[in-house]
Predict the 3D structure of the following.
Amino acid sequence: MIEFTNVSKTYDTGNRAVRNINLRIRDGEFVFLTGRSGSGKSTLIKLITRELKPTEGRIRVNGYDLGTLRQRDIPRFRRSLGVVFQDFRLLNDRNVFENIAFAQRVIGASPREIRENVPEMLQLTGLSAKYKNMPFQLSGGEQQRVAIARALINKPAVILADEPTGNLDERNSQEIMKLLLDINRMGTTVIIITHSGELVRSIPARVIVMDKGNIVRDSDNGVSERGISAFFTDYRQPKERWLSSASTHTSGNPRAVFREEAESGAPLKEEYEEFENDEFEDESVPWFTDRDEDRVDEEKGEQA
Ligand code: ADP
Ligand code: MG
Protein backbone atom coordinates (compact mmCIF):
# COMPACT_ATOMS: atom_id res chain seq x y z
CA MET A 1 0.00 0.00 0.00
CA ILE A 2 1.15 3.48 -0.88
CA GLU A 3 -0.33 6.40 0.99
CA PHE A 4 0.34 10.11 0.52
CA THR A 5 -1.14 12.51 3.06
CA ASN A 6 -0.93 16.22 2.19
CA VAL A 7 2.38 15.75 0.40
CA SER A 8 4.20 18.64 -1.24
CA LYS A 9 7.65 18.79 -2.78
CA THR A 10 9.38 22.05 -3.54
CA TYR A 11 12.85 21.77 -5.08
CA ASP A 12 15.76 23.93 -3.91
CA THR A 13 15.14 26.05 -7.00
CA GLY A 14 11.73 27.01 -5.60
CA ASN A 15 9.99 24.80 -8.15
CA ARG A 16 6.82 23.41 -6.58
CA ALA A 17 6.73 20.06 -8.37
CA VAL A 18 4.13 18.32 -6.17
CA ARG A 19 1.38 20.23 -4.38
CA ASN A 20 -0.59 18.90 -1.47
CA ILE A 21 -1.26 15.44 -2.81
CA ASN A 22 -3.47 12.85 -1.14
CA LEU A 23 -3.35 9.43 -2.69
CA ARG A 24 -3.83 5.81 -1.84
CA ILE A 25 -2.76 2.89 -4.04
CA ARG A 26 -3.75 -0.51 -2.72
CA ASP A 27 -1.82 -3.75 -3.09
CA GLY A 28 -2.40 -5.42 -6.42
CA GLU A 29 -3.53 -2.33 -8.31
CA PHE A 30 -2.55 -1.49 -11.88
CA VAL A 31 -2.25 2.28 -12.20
CA PHE A 32 -1.38 4.69 -14.96
CA LEU A 33 0.11 7.98 -13.82
CA THR A 34 -0.19 10.45 -16.64
CA GLY A 35 -0.04 14.16 -17.40
CA ARG A 36 2.01 16.46 -19.56
CA SER A 37 5.76 16.89 -19.27
CA GLY A 38 6.74 18.75 -16.11
CA SER A 39 3.50 17.98 -14.27
CA GLY A 40 5.33 16.20 -11.43
CA LYS A 41 5.03 12.51 -12.31
CA SER A 42 8.68 11.59 -11.90
CA THR A 43 8.90 13.63 -8.72
CA LEU A 44 5.97 11.63 -7.33
CA ILE A 45 7.75 8.37 -8.15
CA LYS A 46 10.99 9.59 -6.56
CA LEU A 47 9.06 10.43 -3.43
CA ILE A 48 7.77 6.84 -3.35
CA THR A 49 11.29 5.40 -3.72
CA ARG A 50 12.61 7.84 -1.11
CA GLU A 51 15.09 9.33 -3.57
CA LEU A 52 13.42 12.58 -2.59
CA LYS A 53 11.98 13.65 0.73
CA PRO A 54 8.76 15.64 0.80
CA THR A 55 8.83 19.26 1.88
CA GLU A 56 5.55 18.63 3.66
CA GLY A 57 3.29 15.72 4.40
CA ARG A 58 3.51 12.06 5.17
CA ILE A 59 4.32 9.12 2.90
CA ARG A 60 3.82 5.47 3.77
CA VAL A 61 4.96 2.72 1.42
CA ASN A 62 4.73 -1.04 1.98
CA GLY A 63 4.45 -0.60 5.72
CA TYR A 64 7.35 1.88 6.00
CA ASP A 65 6.81 5.43 7.18
CA LEU A 66 9.29 7.25 4.94
CA GLY A 67 9.42 10.24 7.27
CA THR A 68 11.04 8.19 10.04
CA LEU A 69 12.92 5.70 7.87
CA ARG A 70 16.55 5.57 8.92
CA GLN A 71 19.32 5.84 6.35
CA ARG A 72 20.52 2.33 7.07
CA ASP A 73 17.05 0.90 6.49
CA ILE A 74 16.68 2.45 3.04
CA PRO A 75 18.22 -0.51 1.14
CA ARG A 76 15.85 -2.91 2.87
CA PHE A 77 12.89 -0.65 2.14
CA ARG A 78 13.89 -0.37 -1.53
CA ARG A 79 13.89 -4.12 -1.91
CA SER A 80 10.10 -3.88 -1.64
CA LEU A 81 10.17 -1.83 -4.86
CA GLY A 82 11.21 -2.65 -8.41
CA VAL A 83 12.00 0.25 -10.71
CA VAL A 84 12.05 0.44 -14.50
CA PHE A 85 13.09 3.43 -16.60
CA GLN A 86 12.64 4.68 -20.13
CA ASP A 87 16.39 4.33 -20.81
CA PHE A 88 16.65 0.78 -19.36
CA ARG A 89 19.78 1.55 -17.26
CA LEU A 90 21.42 -1.80 -17.83
CA LEU A 91 25.04 -2.51 -17.00
CA ASN A 92 26.43 -2.34 -20.51
CA ASP A 93 29.57 -4.36 -19.79
CA ARG A 94 27.63 -7.35 -18.47
CA ASN A 95 25.51 -9.93 -20.20
CA VAL A 96 21.79 -10.49 -19.68
CA PHE A 97 22.27 -13.13 -17.00
CA GLU A 98 24.66 -10.91 -15.05
CA ASN A 99 22.40 -7.88 -15.32
CA ILE A 100 19.54 -9.79 -13.71
CA ALA A 101 21.81 -11.57 -11.23
CA PHE A 102 23.18 -8.19 -10.14
CA ALA A 103 19.95 -7.35 -8.35
CA GLN A 104 20.29 -10.57 -6.38
CA ARG A 105 23.96 -10.02 -5.53
CA VAL A 106 23.30 -6.63 -4.00
CA ILE A 107 20.96 -8.24 -1.51
CA GLY A 108 23.47 -10.97 -0.75
CA ALA A 109 21.69 -13.88 -2.42
CA SER A 110 23.72 -17.09 -2.60
CA PRO A 111 25.05 -18.39 -5.93
CA ARG A 112 22.60 -21.26 -5.54
CA GLU A 113 19.63 -18.90 -5.25
CA ILE A 114 20.90 -16.88 -8.19
CA ARG A 115 21.23 -20.00 -10.32
CA GLU A 116 17.66 -20.87 -9.40
CA ASN A 117 16.01 -17.46 -9.72
CA VAL A 118 17.66 -15.89 -12.75
CA PRO A 119 16.55 -18.63 -15.18
CA GLU A 120 13.03 -18.28 -13.80
CA MET A 121 13.05 -14.55 -14.60
CA LEU A 122 14.62 -15.22 -18.00
CA GLN A 123 11.79 -17.56 -18.80
CA LEU A 124 9.10 -15.18 -17.60
CA THR A 125 10.48 -12.42 -19.78
CA GLY A 126 11.24 -14.65 -22.78
CA LEU A 127 14.97 -14.10 -22.67
CA SER A 128 16.27 -17.58 -21.89
CA ALA A 129 17.87 -18.03 -25.27
CA LYS A 130 19.67 -14.70 -24.99
CA TYR A 131 21.09 -15.00 -21.52
CA LYS A 132 24.67 -14.62 -22.75
CA ASN A 133 23.96 -11.62 -24.97
CA MET A 134 25.36 -8.23 -24.08
CA PRO A 135 22.87 -5.34 -23.93
CA PHE A 136 24.06 -3.93 -27.28
CA GLN A 137 23.12 -7.24 -28.88
CA LEU A 138 19.48 -6.82 -27.86
CA SER A 139 16.57 -4.86 -29.28
CA GLY A 140 15.11 -2.06 -27.19
CA GLY A 141 12.18 -4.24 -26.20
CA GLU A 142 14.52 -7.00 -25.08
CA GLN A 143 16.62 -4.56 -23.09
CA GLN A 144 13.52 -3.36 -21.32
CA ARG A 145 12.56 -6.96 -20.57
CA VAL A 146 15.97 -7.43 -18.92
CA ALA A 147 15.30 -4.33 -16.84
CA ILE A 148 11.90 -5.71 -15.83
CA ALA A 149 13.41 -9.09 -14.93
CA ARG A 150 15.97 -7.27 -12.78
CA ALA A 151 13.27 -5.20 -11.12
CA LEU A 152 11.20 -8.28 -10.38
CA ILE A 153 13.73 -10.84 -9.24
CA ASN A 154 13.71 -9.84 -5.57
CA LYS A 155 9.92 -10.19 -5.55
CA PRO A 156 8.98 -6.58 -4.80
CA ALA A 157 5.45 -5.69 -3.77
CA VAL A 158 5.42 -2.77 -6.21
CA ILE A 159 6.85 -2.18 -9.69
CA LEU A 160 7.33 1.48 -10.64
CA ALA A 161 7.89 2.11 -14.34
CA ASP A 162 8.74 5.66 -15.49
CA GLU A 163 7.88 5.88 -19.21
CA PRO A 164 8.86 2.22 -19.79
CA THR A 165 7.78 2.27 -23.43
CA GLY A 166 9.00 5.79 -24.19
CA ASN A 167 11.91 4.55 -26.32
CA LEU A 168 10.10 1.63 -27.95
CA ASP A 169 8.15 1.14 -31.15
CA GLU A 170 4.51 0.09 -31.17
CA ARG A 171 5.09 -3.66 -31.21
CA ASN A 172 7.71 -3.64 -28.46
CA SER A 173 5.56 -1.30 -26.38
CA GLN A 174 2.70 -3.76 -26.55
CA GLU A 175 4.95 -6.61 -25.47
CA ILE A 176 6.22 -4.64 -22.52
CA MET A 177 2.65 -3.74 -21.54
CA LYS A 178 1.59 -7.38 -21.79
CA LEU A 179 4.48 -8.36 -19.57
CA LEU A 180 3.59 -5.70 -16.99
CA LEU A 181 -0.04 -6.82 -17.06
CA ASP A 182 1.07 -10.39 -16.54
CA ILE A 183 3.22 -9.34 -13.60
CA ASN A 184 0.25 -7.49 -12.11
CA ARG A 185 -1.90 -10.57 -12.53
CA MET A 186 0.63 -12.50 -10.48
CA GLY A 187 -0.08 -10.09 -7.62
CA THR A 188 2.45 -7.26 -7.95
CA THR A 189 1.24 -3.66 -7.78
CA VAL A 190 2.20 -1.96 -11.04
CA ILE A 191 2.45 1.81 -11.47
CA ILE A 192 3.23 3.06 -14.95
CA ILE A 193 4.07 6.64 -15.86
CA THR A 194 3.23 7.53 -19.40
CA HIS A 195 2.16 10.55 -21.36
CA SER A 196 0.73 8.37 -24.11
CA GLY A 197 -3.02 8.84 -24.11
CA GLU A 198 -3.27 5.95 -26.52
CA LEU A 199 -1.58 3.59 -24.11
CA VAL A 200 -3.81 4.75 -21.26
CA ARG A 201 -6.97 4.27 -23.30
CA SER A 202 -5.93 0.80 -24.43
CA ILE A 203 -6.14 -0.77 -20.99
CA PRO A 204 -9.02 -0.28 -18.55
CA ALA A 205 -6.92 0.41 -15.48
CA ARG A 206 -6.96 3.17 -12.87
CA VAL A 207 -5.74 6.45 -14.32
CA ILE A 208 -4.29 9.27 -12.24
CA VAL A 209 -3.75 12.53 -14.07
CA MET A 210 -1.34 15.20 -12.84
CA ASP A 211 -1.17 18.84 -13.85
CA LYS A 212 1.17 21.46 -12.37
CA GLY A 213 1.91 19.26 -9.37
CA ASN A 214 -1.71 18.48 -8.58
CA ILE A 215 -3.74 15.35 -9.10
CA VAL A 216 -6.51 16.67 -11.30
CA ARG A 217 -8.23 13.37 -12.01
CA ASP A 218 -8.23 9.89 -10.48
CA SER A 219 -10.44 7.23 -11.96
CA ASP A 220 -10.18 5.02 -8.87
CA ASN A 221 -12.96 2.72 -9.87
CA GLY A 222 -13.15 -0.14 -7.48
CA VAL A 223 -11.66 -2.79 -9.75
CA SER A 224 -8.48 -2.11 -7.92
CA GLU A 225 -8.75 -4.49 -4.98
CA ARG A 226 -8.14 -7.45 -7.22
CA GLY A 227 -5.87 -5.65 -9.61
CA ILE A 228 -7.39 -5.94 -13.02
CA SER A 229 -7.35 -9.70 -13.07
CA ALA A 230 -10.98 -9.89 -14.10
CA PHE A 231 -10.04 -8.01 -17.23
CA PHE A 232 -7.61 -10.68 -18.26
CA THR A 233 -10.24 -12.98 -19.57
CA ASP A 234 -11.12 -10.20 -22.02
CA TYR A 235 -7.83 -8.73 -22.99
CA ARG A 236 -6.71 -11.78 -24.91
CA GLN A 237 -9.59 -11.39 -27.31
CA PRO A 238 -8.33 -10.27 -30.70
CA LYS A 239 -11.01 -7.60 -30.78
CA GLU A 240 -9.04 -5.70 -28.16
CA ARG A 241 -7.37 -2.93 -30.06
CA TRP A 242 -4.06 -3.00 -28.32
CA LEU A 243 -3.54 -6.66 -29.07
CA SER A 244 -4.80 -6.76 -32.61
CA SER A 245 -2.73 -3.92 -34.00
CA ALA A 246 0.82 -4.50 -35.15
CA SER A 247 1.47 -7.65 -33.15
CA THR A 248 3.09 -10.41 -35.12
CA HIS A 249 2.17 -12.93 -32.47
CA THR A 250 -1.10 -14.73 -32.94
CA SER A 251 -1.61 -16.56 -29.68
CA GLY A 252 -2.54 -13.39 -27.81
CA ASN A 253 -1.19 -14.88 -24.62
CA PRO A 254 1.88 -13.04 -23.42
CA ARG A 255 3.23 -16.05 -21.57
CA ALA A 256 2.84 -18.18 -24.65
CA VAL A 257 4.55 -15.58 -26.79
CA PHE A 258 7.56 -15.52 -24.52
CA ARG A 259 7.52 -19.27 -24.08
CA GLU A 260 7.62 -19.82 -27.83
CA GLU A 261 10.58 -17.55 -28.05
CA ALA A 262 12.30 -19.10 -25.06
CA GLU A 263 11.89 -22.59 -26.43
CA SER A 264 13.85 -21.63 -29.50
CA GLY A 265 17.17 -22.00 -27.69
CA ALA A 266 16.81 -21.98 -23.98
CA PRO A 267 19.47 -23.89 -22.08
CA LEU A 268 18.51 -26.35 -19.40
CA LYS A 269 19.02 -25.06 -15.91
CA GLU A 270 22.25 -26.98 -15.38
CA GLU A 271 23.59 -25.76 -18.70
CA TYR A 272 23.87 -22.12 -17.72
CA GLU A 273 27.54 -21.36 -17.79
CA GLU A 274 29.36 -20.36 -14.68
CA PHE A 275 29.14 -16.69 -13.95
CA GLU A 276 31.36 -14.38 -11.99
CA ASN A 277 30.71 -14.04 -8.34
CA ASP A 278 31.87 -10.60 -7.39
CA GLU A 279 30.38 -8.70 -4.52
CA PHE A 280 28.56 -5.40 -4.65
CA GLU A 281 27.62 -2.88 -2.07
CA ASP A 282 24.03 -1.75 -1.68
CA GLU A 283 25.36 1.74 -2.29
CA SER A 284 26.34 0.91 -5.84
CA VAL A 285 22.87 0.02 -7.10
CA PRO A 286 22.96 1.88 -10.40
CA TRP A 287 19.28 2.34 -11.05
CA PHE A 288 18.86 4.87 -8.30
CA THR A 289 20.98 7.44 -10.07
CA ASP A 290 19.88 10.46 -8.13
CA ARG A 291 21.55 10.02 -4.80
CA ASP A 292 19.10 10.41 -2.02
CA GLU A 293 18.99 13.72 -0.29
CA ASP A 294 20.36 12.60 3.07
CA ARG A 295 23.60 11.54 1.51
CA VAL A 296 23.84 14.75 -0.49
CA ASP A 297 23.26 16.69 2.75
CA GLU A 298 25.97 14.68 4.49
CA GLU A 299 28.42 15.36 1.68
CA LYS A 300 27.64 19.06 1.81
CA GLY A 301 28.36 18.94 5.54
CA GLU A 302 31.69 17.25 4.94
CA GLN A 303 32.74 19.86 2.43
CA ALA A 304 31.84 22.74 4.71
P1 ADP B 1 7.25 14.97 -15.16
O1 ADP B 1 7.91 13.67 -14.77
O2 ADP B 1 5.78 14.94 -15.05
O3 ADP B 1 7.72 15.43 -16.50
P2 ADP B 1 8.91 16.12 -13.07
O4 ADP B 1 8.49 15.51 -11.80
O5 ADP B 1 10.17 15.61 -13.69
O6 ADP B 1 7.72 16.09 -14.12
O7 ADP B 1 9.10 17.67 -12.86
C1 ADP B 1 8.12 18.49 -12.24
C2 ADP B 1 8.64 19.90 -12.14
O8 ADP B 1 9.75 19.93 -11.25
C3 ADP B 1 9.11 20.48 -13.44
O9 ADP B 1 8.81 21.83 -13.46
C4 ADP B 1 10.61 20.25 -13.40
O10 ADP B 1 11.28 21.22 -14.17
C5 ADP B 1 10.90 20.41 -11.93
N1 ADP B 1 12.05 19.60 -11.49
C6 ADP B 1 12.23 18.27 -11.67
N2 ADP B 1 13.37 17.87 -11.11
C7 ADP B 1 13.94 18.96 -10.55
C8 ADP B 1 15.14 19.19 -9.81
N3 ADP B 1 16.00 18.18 -9.53
N4 ADP B 1 15.40 20.44 -9.40
C9 ADP B 1 14.55 21.44 -9.67
N5 ADP B 1 13.39 21.31 -10.35
C10 ADP B 1 13.08 20.07 -10.80
MG1 MG C 1 9.18 12.42 -15.90
